[in-house]
Design goal:
The protein is mainly beta. The protein contains two helices and seven strands; from the N terminus they run ββββααβββ. The protein starts with a strand and ends in a 7-residue tail after the last strand.
Length: 137
Amino acid sequence: MSHPLCCIGSAVLEVIGLNPRRLDYRSEAHWAEHAVFDDEPFYQPTGLGARVLTLHLAARPHVMGGLGAYAALKRHHEAQDVVPFIRLMAGSIGEVVGDVAIRRLGHGEEKIAPDGLGYRHEFDVELLLVGRRAGGF
């Protein structure tokens, strides 16, 4: 096992294996607009909307493996599980980002090998922060 970088439920993303290449965070806030007589509109905050993390992952299964972690992500996605998302750092220190649901999962492979499996695989995983610990990043 190489150095783990993060865990999404039972899927462990590692330096060697299924490797995170980029992580994007997106959130939205809701603001109600109210007309004010003879003045600019007044905006009132009404709460936060969805908080979404998008992970861009890559694997080279013929050299480094990684498809087992993808299979675990796919199982969580298809079962619509709510699982913990933990980011790991140097020195075995981690941060519990929160509970997530895998909203979208995409997979592409290229340069197909003679065994029928692509040499390069890329994945996009969209995580929706849910529950009490969805406070952000």
